Input
Amino acid sequence: MKSKILSVIIPFILAACCTFLLASILQTQMVLFNLTKIQINIPFIDRLVMSWEDLVGLLPSYGVVIVIGLAIGFSIAKLFKKFVKIDNFYLNPIAGALTMLAILIAMQPILGVTLLAGARSTLGITLQMLAGFVGGYVFLILRTKVTSKAEI
Output
């Protein structure tokens, strides 16, 4: 029982971390990209520093929201799989992407603002969904490896 729980928890934590890291960095870079469009020069080292500061600054809010959102999204995906025959290869990454979209849509009415300036455009939203897709794929791959090792 304990190993079965760990076979879900560890891949989930790693997938959520991957999703948050990618989402935060993409959000930061999207903001900086928009600044370069108005002729503001941003040196590479400043991009790194700003990315780090956003990682630290967004972790207590956006990081927690992503963890909760992915837990709900992956749970819904598992329930959905009971009713619809779909391969995990598609299901988990799509669940991750849709979770990120749901998070972004929900933040506006709940908080009254778009928390992420880098997600105010179609490209920004798509990049956040890409982060969720990658997180879902990481969850799929790690779950597959853990499950296959447990069967040996």
